[in-house]
Amino acid sequence: MTATQLSPGSVRKTAAGATAPGRRRALDRYLNPALGVLGVAVVLAAWQICASTGVVDPKFSSSPSGAFRALVDSFTSGDVWSPLGSTLSIVAWGMLISIVAAIPLGLLIGRNRVLYALTDPLISIMYSVPYVVFLPMLIFWFGIGADARVVIVVWSAMFPLLINVIAGARNLEQSHLQVSRVFCASRLTTLRSVAFPATLPYILAGVRQAVGRALIGAIVAELFMGSAGLGYVVQLKTSNFQTDDAMAAIAVIAIIAVLLNHGVAYLEQRLTFWSRTD
């Protein structure tokens, strides 16, 4: 038997080839955020130039410098905290209700053919039809208080999460189900110990979509029926032609959206690392 001889050059090439994907991932980790910041900076610079040169009227379109001053003033004066807390509380309650309802319901529907056939058309309709068209009826049913806003947030957030959970439950690997049958696991045990962990990537992907839609629902509800919250501030300041203050409130909404999205993405990366193929 002869031993295989490896030359130093082939070893170096193998090591370089092994570390190349790691280097590319590390480069992408810093390059993508940098490019994103650069894109935002280009848009803001173009907006500022248009406002400064008179291409657009700052009285109606505001400007980055004016919006930034209004944003700083809102934080230093404390005017932003009350509407910010109102919006976040509505989003939190809506997401809590959506998660508690959608995850077990989606697992049940996804693992039952009859329930899936019965509910799939209804879920598709409720997801596809804009909830804004139901606002007049929701106002009649729930009024214009916090309850109505929570209903709109739940409507916005629940269906994308529900659809993702159902898709995950319907795409379970047969080997997982065979193991549960071998151990004579009940349906409830199978859902809890097999279906739920296996569908966790789908669940977190649905939560990521639901968070964004929940924030949109909260802002829309505050625009139409709110007396508090960031959406109400945008509507009030815009109607009074205080565009700098309105853009400052919109900037706060954008910051919240980015933080929520990246927060859920971080959880998704940490909790479902085993499901990635790269």
CATH names the topology of the largest domain as MetI-like fold
Can you tell me the CATH class of the largest domain? Mainly Alpha
- State the helix count: 12
C-alpha-based Rg, rounded: 25 Å
Shape: globular
**Uncertain runs:** none
Please give the alpha-carbon distance between the first and last residues. 37 Å
Structural class: mainly alpha
Q: Report the sheet-strand fraction.
A: under 5%
Quote the average pLDDT.
80
How many beta-strand segments?
0
How are helices and strands ordered from N to C?
HHHHHHHHHHHH
Q: How would you name the CATH homologous superfamily of the largest domain?
A: MetI-like
Biggest sheet architecture: none
Please indicate the count of domains. Answer: 2
In CATH terms, what is the architecture of the largest domain? Orthogonal Bundle
Q: Helix amount, in percent?
A: over 70%
Features:
278 residues, mainly alpha, MetI-like fold, 0% strand, MetI-like_sf
Describe it for me?
There is one protein chain. The chain has twelve helices and no strands. With 278 residues, it is mainly α. It folds into two domains: 8-56; 64-275, MetI-like fold, CATH 1.10.3720.10. Helix 6 (135-142) packs across helix 7 (146-170) and helix 11 packs antiparallel against helix 12 (243-271). The longest helix is centred in the first third of the chain and has 46 residues, at 8-53. The two termini are 37 Å apart.
